[in-house]
Amino acid sequence: MTLYQSLFIIGLLIVASAFFSVSEISLAASRRLRLRQMADDGDARAERVLRVQEQPGDYFTVVQIGQNAVAILGGVVGEGVLSPNFSAFFGLWLGEAAAQTAGFLSSFLIVTSLFILFSDLFPKRLGMATPERLAMHVSQPMAICMTMLRPLVWFYSRCADALFRLFGLSSLRDDRITSDDILAMMEAGAIAGVLAAREQQVITNVFELDTRTVGSAMSPRDRIAFFLRDEPDSVIRLRIAAEPFSTYPVCEGDIDHVVGYVDAKDLFQRVLNNQPISLADDSLVRKVLIVPDRLTLSEVLEQFRQVHEDFAVIVNEYSLVVGVVTLNDVMSTVMGDLVSPFDEEQIVRRDENSWLIDGVTPIELVLRALALDHLPHAEEYETLAGFLMVMLRRVPRRTDSVIWGGYKFEVLDVDSYRIDQVMVSRISESAAAAAVTAA
Q1: Which UniProt keywords apply (predicted)?
Q2: How do residues 372-403 score in pLDDT, each as one tens digit?
């Protein structure tokens, strides 16, 4: 065999090895969601790749047989053809033994480098760049190889299956997609510029509905505008003018005895028709939805759907009213400032290292604003005010502060035991350590 014939054979072996490398990496890197979309659009090749991904054992067996056979053949051909030529070249300056050693090493390095570059690195990087397209292109040739090598494939596959059983391992691919996977994809899309930052935040908020309790979106007890059932028409009209809302709870005696709610539209209708307003009229007072304060936002949405309501009163374990929530409150949690851009912000960033935060701000928003993973005793509170109470073990007063996680949380304003404003400042590690030592 001449030198040119041998080089041609080496070239063919490199191409064959590159084919198997592309086949391996493209199948492994192909995204099932993308393939399923292509298959739904009528691409039979995508459907074939999906079937192979479900049972990839025979496929990878063919890949390994091909790659190892080609590598061995490449070494034999390269050493048999290139070594004598290199040995003759080095023999011009070296002795016979040294020339043969130098020739063998040179042949080995050149053939190995060619295989590494053209049959491994380049094809695998190419396969990672466009895995689905390449997997569909190689699926049919690989099916032919699997048919031709079926006896060997059967033997090696059964041996591999026996090893998996011996070690108690599963050879099936886990294609379950978790919420963390989706959020990671959304973050990658936002970084790449495919997804707007606000769109990413909306999707993140949707997944948080299962973890955030209704207390994070409710209007607290001290901000509820309600009517007593026996209040006269004049008082009701004055209350509507002073505190205009879309819905008002109706109570018997006090706020903890809610008997229903009245819609502002019904009240306005009576006012426009010059009719008196009497909450003793059962046709005006509607049945109210009562929900416990431990429900998540997704559970509240489900209850809204079941009873066809968009307003609920929230009670604690002692049947005391702690707040009210509307469908708009829940959706505002999801959409953020996309639906309420003119509302007063609960978190105002003053500069690079300080924030002014409302005490009733949900702790999830505080964590996000400060880029923190968690706060201590997270199961004991839902708002920033709750965090300060738990950390101080008492009702906070003005100038009280807590230092944690490289931040100083200082109470600026307290109104009737309610924490109105908190200043959060980023501090240095030395300052934090000094504060902890002083405490």
Answers
A1: CBS domain, Cell inner membrane, Cell membrane, Membrane, Repeat, Transmembrane, Transmembrane helix, Transport
A2: 888 888 888 888 888 999 999 888 888 899 99
